[in-house]
Automatic annotation (TrEMBL):
GO terms for molecular function: iron-sulfur cluster binding. PROSITE patterns: 4FE4S_FER_1, 4FE4S_FER_2. Residues 120-150, 172-201 form the 4Fe-4S ferredoxin-type domain. InterPro entries: 4Fe4S_Fe-S-bd (IPR017896), 4Fe4S_Fe_S_CS (IPR017900), Helical_ferredxn (IPR009051). This is 4Fe-4S ferredoxin-type domain-containing protein. It comes from bioreactor metagenome. The lineage of its organism: unclassified sequences, metagenomes, ecological metagenomes. SUPFAM superfamilies: alpha-helical ferredoxin.
Length: 239
């Protein structure tokens, strides 16, 4: 415990560490801020971990800092749930959830552009991708035991490093996590080439909220994600 350092620069999400040793006997203790707690719910709901095997030390979060600029980290500026939604012990004073509709500003601006412009924008972005998979590896919603990106059989994702395959990777990943992204912003934070991945994720979140109503992934572990349930009242424009 003497070696544990926890300061305002500890930006990395903690929940994904639970998958490092999924068959570990006994309980695992984990520190969790609001985003980490939603990520834990994500993993519980996806059947990756059991709640009874985790001891969650919740930390009421006031935001973390970017180690380069010293300013509040981008992901924290857009945070809606800084207080852990699941915990066993809690440290600090709870902070109420905030709506932050402005986090969809970049998406709304992009939606105003013509289809060709949007296509060029994302092509430019994914031309930079080096397929390091850091975005996938840090993401608590990317928790498949075998990712489509690691398939070697023909017909899955090609291994060539070029824009078309990069786009297939980026867009498929966005769709895979469409109704399960907990908006921790870790993918965009770790991308070494600065692709604004949260713009893609938030486009899907915005559309899902318009089609299925207000839904925030990982806020609890009981409410099924909208794309994982069927209702006769579902809107049909997308079918
Ligand atoms: S995203 Fe929210 S809960 Fe997570 S570190 Fe930033 S302010 Fe804290
Ligand atoms: S982190 Fe960025 S560069 Fe790496 S695979 Fe993801 S999008 Fe591509």
């Amino acid at each position: 415990m003497e070696r544990l350092i926890w300061d305002e620069y500890c930006l990395t999400g903690t929940a994904k560490y639970l998958l490092d040793d999924p068959y570990r006997a006994g309980k695992t203790g984990l520190f969790a801020r609001g985003c980490d707690a939603r990520a834990i719910n994500r993993l519980i709901q996806d059947g990756q971990v059991k709640r009874e095997n985790i001891v969650i030390i919740g930390i009421c979060c006031t935001g973390m800092s970017d180690s380069v600029s010293g300013q509040m980290a981008a992901k924290c500026c857009d945070c809606t749930h800084p207080t852990p939604v699941v915990y066993d012990l809690m440290i600090g004073e709870p902070v109420k959830p905030v709506a932050k509709p402005e986090r969809f500003k970049a998406v709304a601006e992009l939606e105003q552009k013509a289809a060709q412009e949007k296509s060029e924008y994302w092509t430019r972005q994914f031309a930079k991708c080096i397929r390091c998979y850091a975005c996938r590896n840090i993401c608590p919603a990317c928790n498949c035991r075998e990712c489509f990106a690691d398939q070697y059989r023909v017909g899955w994702l090609g291994k060539q490093h070029h824009t078309a395959e990069n786009l297939v990777f980026g867009l498929t990943r966005a769709y895979h996590i469409a109704d399960r992204c907990i908006e921790c912003g870790e993918c965009a934070r770790v991308c070494p080439v600065g692709i604004p991945l949260m713009e893609l994720n938030r486009k899907l979140i915005k559309d899902i909220q318009q089609l299925f109503g207000d839904y925030h992934a990982g806020v609890d572990s009981e409410t099924a994600p909208p794309l994982g349930r069927y209702s006769l009242d579902d809107m049909e424009e997308f079918m």
